[in-house]
Design brief:
Helices cover 54% and strands 5% of the residues. The protein is mainly alpha-helical and 185 residues long. It has a two-stranded antiparallel ribbon. The protein has a two-stranded antiparallel ribbon with strand order 3-4.
């Protein structure tokens, strides 16, 4: 239910700034759904914590882990690696200066409108290292599908290993193994 609340709150946070009647109506629909979850939680004696700015509403005594914490959990062999990737990716996805400036380099003087021509200042290896969190999360998801819902992922596991080898070859950080996923007993 916390995942549902997170999705509802993210949608509200995203569209609340729009001024149209459709946006206001959609926010009202989402708020009704959140109110329904709140009511059900309280009927069952579960705490409800409302949305505060960009922080989503949640139920229960403890706030669910952040995206940064979850990504860091996917790279647990190297503490804080996931958190670092989250910051790098967040800087790009949120168009923050530090995230985007790393990719561009000026290649000439400003034109008549004041725009400075730029070129992409990166390589396939740099991008593969910067975006390593993607394949790590995908690989972790496959392993979790094996042990949590007990799905048969044997057909997918070799593809995950091939993906990690290819990513490692491009990034210059070879995949350390294992070659085949461990089957659960």
């Amino acid at each position: 239910m916390n995942h549902r609340l997170d999705g509802l709150c993210e949608e509200i946070y995203m569209i609340r700034s729009f001024q149209g009647a459709d946006a206001r109506a959609r926010v009202a629909e989402l708020e009704v759904e959140i109110e329904s979850i709140k009511s059900a939680a309280l009927q069952h004696g579960i705490e409800f914590h409302p949305q505060k700015g960009p922080r989503s509403a949640y139920i229960g005594a403890e706030q669910p882990p952040s995206a940064m914490t979850l990504i860091d959990g996917c790279t647990s062999r190297t503490p804080l690696l996931g958190a670092t990737y989250h910051r790098l990716l967040s800087g790009v996805s949120h168009a923050k200066r530090h995230g985007l400036a790393r990719f561009l380099v000026p290649v000439g003087p400003p034109d008549e409108e004041g725009s400075i021509p730029t070129a992409l200042n990166t390589s396939a290896g740099d991008l593969a290292r910067d975006l390593l969190a993607g394949p790590l999360c995908a690989a972790t998801l496959v392993e979790h599908l094996r042990w949590y819902p007990r799905w048969d992922v044997d057909a997918v596991s070799p593809l995950v290993v091939r993906m990690l080898h290819a990513w490692g070859r491009i990034s210059g950080a070879p995949y350390p193994g294992p070659e085949i996923s461990h089957a659960t007993g």
